[in-house]
Amino acid sequence: MVFNTGDTAWILASSALVLLMTPGLAFFYGGMVRGKNVLGMLAQNFVTMGVVSVLWITGVYSLAFSGKGKWIGDFHQFGLNHIWQQATGFEALTIPPLVFCAFQLMFAIITPALITGGSADRLKFGSWVIFSALWLVVVYAPVAHWVFSPSGWLFKLGAEDFAGGTVVHANAGAAALALVLVLGKRKGWPKERMRPHNVPFVLLGAGLLWFGWFGFNAGSALGANTLSAFAFVNTNTATGAALVAWMLTEKLRDGHATTLGAASGAVAGLVAITPACGFVSPMGSIAIGIAAGVICCLAVGLKNVFKFDDALDVVGVHLVGGILGALLIGFFGTKMTNGANGVLYKGGWTLMGHQAVAVVAVVAYSFIVTFILAKILDLIIGLRISEEDESAGLDLSQHAETAYETSSTGDGARFLSSQQVAN
User: What is the pLDDT of residue 408?
Assistant: First the structure.
């Protein structure tokens, strides 16, 4: 088969854009934690890039996209054997199979990385490495097969997810909720106010996420074409609408709009439009963005109501936003863009029903399996750092380094104090 060089170049570029999202996420999360935990947050995200890159090539790609099983793939492309063959159901692609594999790898990297925001400030680094590796195999691979692979049962049902609202965001959000329930609350939460230590970092991370998300969504058209352009425009439009809606919600509720809210609103819009960007019109993307900005802004308060310590609002933004975007396809979806007509375009409630089944199946599976996995690992190796280490912070206790050299937190200060005591 002769591959299209333009399509190939675009998907390779999109793959690089999506990879950039994980360092962007690291800064987004890193700025929101206290200064003593910022390197711990960055380290968890960066090590995920390494762990997933190796596992994806050695076997997880095959489990997600190879074979005709409706529940999970097979071993046909383990170790990238037979990589000259297109993934099952993707035979018409105009890009080389290895390019498709690389593009999907970047989705597999950022999905477990999203979970780290929920468990921030209290998860052992080594335990995270083991947890993320196992989670990729037992949760991400099956869910990706169900939704993304033409052989998967949700794909065959007719559920639509253009770029990962269920596979990535609802999946990671449900997993984060399960993990924080096993870990328990941070020391001092909710009585102690745990302010972000560096809001400019948060905005930098949000900007990198926004930039990389064009590869995430527009690249999911798997070609340089009109559908890719729709996904690109819808992504940007929904994000802008959500940012404004979140800030207006803050203003009406609290009397002021915040820069942290602007960053969070942008990410909420990106999350919600992800499953819908290739199925709705630009006007539909505005509605989805507004809904995400308002509903996700309100949803982050659920942790205070139900007393679960989701440190960086993964549940409120990614779980709620992913579910919202997936369901709103059933309302705003239109054949004029791609896919099936939703309720607004006189398509009836069939598509909405398919979307609801996908949301329930993915969220339930991810939550249950993640909870069991976390419980088992907690019993065997322990997931949570000690109270003493939590007080010292992840940076010192897990990595023996600090992000900022100051008289109170720098290693140099500690060594000087020890020398003074010895003298």
Answer: 52
Q: In sequence order, what are the residues at sequence separation of 6 or more whose Cβ sits closer than 8 angstroms to the Cβ of residue 338?
A: 162, 227, 230, 278, 279
DSSP assignment, residue 195? -
Q: Do residues 280 and 332 lie in contact, with contact meaning Cβ atoms separated by under 8 Å?
A: yes
CATH class, domain 5-202+224-384, is mainly alpha
Distances (CA, A) of 59 to 16, 56, 99, 176, 210: 21, 6, 16, 24, 30
**Residue 355 in contact with residue 342, Cβ under 8 Å?**
no
Contacts 24+ apart (CB under 8 A), 250-253: 250/297, 253/297
pLDDT at 409: 45
From 337, 113, 326, select the one nearest 209 (Cα to Cα).
113
Res 422: pLDDT: 37
Q: How do residues 354-366 score in pLDDT, each as one tens digit?
A: 999 999 999 999 9
Q: What's the DSSP call for residue 87?
A: P
- Cα–Cα distance measured from residue 243 to residue 28, given in angstroms and rounded to the nearest whole number: 15
Length of the chain: 423
**What are the strands, taking DSSP E only, across 86-208?**
none
Q: Which two tokens stand for residue 339?
A: 């896919």
DSSP 8-state code for residue 274: T
- Give the residue among 103, 109, 237, 219 at the shortest CA–CA distance from 172: 109
- Alpha-carbon span 201 to 31, nearest angstrom: 5
Measured CA to CA, the distance from residue 38 to residue 402 in angstroms comes to 8
In Å, how far are 94, 251, 295, 346 from 144, measured between CA atoms?
A: 21, 38, 26, 30
Give the model's pLDDT for residue 2: 84
Collapsing DSSP to helix, strand or coil, 151 comes out as coil
Return the residue matching tokens 């369901």.
Answer: 327
Per-residue HEC secondary structure of 289-345 comes to: HHHHHHHHHHHCCHHHHHCCCCCCCHHHHHHHHHHHHHHHHHHHCCCCCCCCCCHHH
Taking the complete model, does pTM exceed 0.90, yes or no? yes
